[in-house]
Amino acid sequence: MADVILHHYAASPFAEKVRVALGLKQAAWKSVDIPNVMPKPDLMPLTGGYRKTPVMQIGADIYCDTQLIMLELDRRLPTPSLLPKGREGEARAITMWVDRNIFGPAVGVVMSQIPIEGRFGEAFKKDRSEFSGRNFDPERLRAALPMVRDQTYALLFIARAMLSDGRKFLLGAEPCLADCALYNPVWFIQSQLGETAAPLDQLPEIVAWSQRMKALGAGKRTDIKASEALDVAKAAKPGDTAVDSGDPSGLKAGQKISVTPDDTGRVPVEGILVGLTPDRVSILRSDPRVGDVVVHFPRAGFVVVPS
Ligand SMILES: N[C@@H](CCC(=O)N[C@@H](CS)C(=O)NCC(=O)O)C(=O)O
């Protein structure tokens, strides 16, 4: 198999979700450091416009969104599995809940307390306003602290309930996809504000669990330059894909479509439909720097329309 290349930056909590999974699998992988704001000139030839962090590349196959990145990692590196046997749906459902419900308030807890003005310039504020579709206003963020801290506490308390029978991880004795997902917001609070920053000071079971997650490490990482990753894509051919002809969308192989996240960073990516399953939509696109690449997205949370 071609190398796993992760395009990410150190402070990204969604990237940490993938890095800890690479640790769990003790995988060897290559790392490309990308900017935390647009422009991302070395990422765009690969994704065709998708701008979120992280992105996973394997040869000329580009995987967007951690929902799909984690499934693909598990398919390619199956041991130990991220999906406990017979509980795959449960692990994925908890992951969606964490990503869509806990991440936002946890980011609020961090952003309302770090010195935004000192740490980030105007470019960051402008970028995050465009990214989220609403004005990135440090004053408003600071005022929201009590509310987002309460929400984070209440939601993490539900996660804590899963650990209340003394199990080590959310679905049992071994860590799985759901644990990697929950580690994303918990790690973000810890890495920015401290290991037991509120509301974690009220949740010792979550802190103890986070220490077990941290111990998984991040696998064997080798840093490479973005240009090297682009050369890899150029030299490779995308893997095989197939379009499910009975898909309820009615979309057909060879059709030109666009794929857009339904929440943040809503930049449409256009290409030719070459793969469609209940879990993923794959489009073929071409770029002068990398030649033909196939960009894969999850179905849930993405708007797919003919273009
Ligand atoms: N649903 C996406 C969310 C990714 C996301 O929101 N990532 C943040 C960083 S943690 C981001 O893209 N921020 C803007 C940027 O990096 O340009 C996923 O699961 O990958």
TrEMBL record:
Gene3D superfamilies listed in its UniProt record: 3.40.30.110
Family annotation (InterPro entries): DUF7962, Glutathione-S-Trfase_C_sf, Glutathione_S-Trfase_N, Thioredoxin-like_sf
Keyword terms of this UniProt record: Transferase
PROSITE patterns cross-referenced by the UniProt entry: GST_NTER
Keyword Membrane: no
Chain intervals for the UniProt region annotation (Disordered): 237-260
Keyword Transferase attributed: yes
Single GO molecular function: transferase activity
Record-annotated GST N-terminal domain positions: 2-81
Protein name: Glutathione S-transferase
Taxonomy of the source species: Bacteria, Pseudomonadati, Pseudomonadota, Alphaproteobacteria, Hyphomicrobiales
